[in-house]
Amino acid sequence: MSEPRPGLDLSLLPDGGVRWLDASGPNSDVVISTRIRLARNVSGYAFTGRAREGERLRMLAQVRDALSAVPSLSGSLLLRLEDLPLVDRQLLHERHLVSKELAGLDPQHPVRSGAAVFLGEGVGLLVNEEDHLRLQALRSGFAVAQAFDGVTRLDRELGGQVPYAFHREFGYLTACPTNAGTGLRASVLIHLPGLVLTKEIGKVLAGLQQMGLTYRGLYGEGSEVVGNFFQLSNQTTLGRSEEELQDLLVRVVRHVIEREEEARRVLVRDAGYIIEDKLWRAYGTLRYARSLTFDEAMNYLSGVRLAVGLKLITGLSVYTLNKLLIFAQSAHLAHLEGKVLTDSETNLARARYVRQVLLSEGSGVE
Amino acid sequence: MLCDNCKERDAVVHLTRIVDNAVTQLHLCEKCAAAKGVETTLSVPQHPLGDILQAVQQQASATSEDAAACAFCGATARDFRATGRLGCPHCYDAMEQSLRELLRRLHGSSRHVGQRYDAPVAHMVDKPDTLHDLRDRLRRAIDGEQFELAAELRDRIKALETEPV
Ligand SMILES: [Zn+2]
Ligand SMILES: [Zn+2]
Fold it and tell me: Could you say which residues bind ATP here (chain A) (predicted)?
């Protein structure tokens, strides 16, 4: 180990990097956030996976030089991931600001030299991920057009400075052919407890797939669905225009939201007092538990979030619940406690943190 | 994590269940989930990498492109089959035919219909090779036992090094 490094100063991130949590966007009770990312590569370089260290560092230097002419990222913060201790890289990942791959969280693929992220207001740029560049925009609620505008502006500005690899037939060239063409992945993080409780979720997810959408858990590729939070996104990137891909997501997600609302009405109508009892018990557990695993916390939070949506629990904001979703994760708790925690210490710290937040930010008035 | 029901296969679906006043998680394998009526959700690919490797491997095996290495990065079709990742943008030209087929399989189309892109004018002319770039490419060619490519790169490095500055 080299000399100990100071923890990441969270106040340095623009908006703490979590403005998308503020529940100000459309349909915020059901849709937590909207993200659009564009995969881009720079011509004249091997893709990151095949590049040597020197090439990756020159890539980062070239991007950095170009940014002075990219207004979308003026005043952005540059984080070199290889310079950050594991817990900080984990924290950035927990905030959905960097991918697992870029953060080097997989012990088999440690963080690579040249891995970096530029964080601006509502937009970010990942350098030397699987693709040289991953541009992303993140917005609160169901806000596809706004996210698209943000990332498109960044794309235009950056693409005018750095030569992207583009093919007359295949479009934007990417390391994995699953991203070629537009390189566009539009996704929403959506909470669907009504559909899960009414057991309608299977049909809905199957329908999504037929429409060309796919779903994943909280953390994208390969991650589990916990707490009834799903990430819905377009499955293909080639053969449809950027506008068509957006329209598809908007159309399908709007339909899913309607189905979720309908499921909630059915729950209240057919099982009102049973549901009410369960959801209050979920709240009670969060209020009084002394130890909470991540999965437990997410599941009870899901119940409380549903209760707030059904107006059974009042005096508790969606913003508070969104914050708990992010800040009750292990790297955040380690930051809060100022030290690396064991699993059982993490569970204790999580329960303590959740109790404090619920006590100070809402009484859940009956 | 094992399936809660059969305790045999890996759990792939995770449902929240409310039974006897408790919210519990139900972890099920594909089979047991199907028995409970959530079968269709599982045909959604959870691991795109696994999928693409399968698609790549399913493709007509040895083609004429197989033997050739990409002249820029030295990657071969064999490398692609092993990782599911291409080596550089030029690989798309080097393996154009089989890629067109694969893209059709993955996306239902191989033709980009979205936004067109023109590289900035200042870059329209290829930037001259730097010694750095060439040396990186040479090392990669040697690692991949692409000796013809390595010889060519070595010549270009020599030419650059002896060039009057
Ligand atoms: Zn089973
Ligand atoms: Zn190549």
Answer: 33-37, 96, 134, 185-189, 216-221
Q: How many residues does chain A have?
A: 366
Asked whether the beta carbons of residue B18 and residue A45 sit closer than 8 angstroms, the reply is no
Rounded mean pLDDT, A238-260:
95
CA of A278 to the centre of ligand 1 (A): 27
Q: Which CATH class is domain B1-44?
A: alpha beta
Count Cα neighbours of A42 within 13 Å in the Cβ-side half-sphere. 29
Q: How confident is the model at residue B50 (pLDDT cuts 50, 70, 90)?
A: low
Which CATH fold topology does A10-260 show?
Creatine Kinase; Chain A, domain 2 (3.30.590)
On whether A364 is known to bind a ligand per the annotation, the reply is: no
Q: How far is A9 from chain B (nearest CA, A)?
A: 34
Q: How remote is the CA of residue A70 from the centroid of ligand 2, in Å? A: 29
Rounded to two decimals, the ipTM of the complex is 0.86
The pTM of the whole model exceeds 0.90: no
* Upper half-sphere CA count for residue A177 (Cβ side, 13 Å): 31
List the single residue in B83, B110, B123 with the smallest CB-CB distance to A238: B110
Strands (E), A212-280: 213-216, 229-234
Domain limits of chain A? 10-260, 271-361
Asked whether the beta carbons of A351 and A292 are under 8 A apart, the reply is yes
pLDDT of A239 > 90? The answer is: yes
Phi/psi at A298 (nearest 5 deg)? -65, -40
